[in-house]
Specification:
The chain has 86 residues and is mainly α. It has 5 helices and no strands. The longest helix has 27 residues, at 2-28. It is elongated, with a radius of gyration of 17 Å. Helix content is 65%, strand content 0%. Its main location: membrane.
Amino acid sequence: MKYRETFIYGTRLFHVLLFVYASVSKFLDFQNFRIRSGQSPMIGEHADISAWPVPLPGIIITLFLMTPELRPVGVRPWENKPNNRK
């Protein structure tokens, strides 16, 4: 059982670091991120508006993974709706 708990903790820590790195790197180089997303044919002229919401889910999921009460929501958000509970 100890191996399983260590594996789960390590996996959760890896995901936290991954989401934090991805989000923070987008915020630190925001000007370049906005310009590059503006070069996308789908986003194009809406890059100023759409560049802000992209890194925010990573920060929110990280906060969920770090909070014990919200951890199930951060791991499997689609399974925690009231209609899907068994």
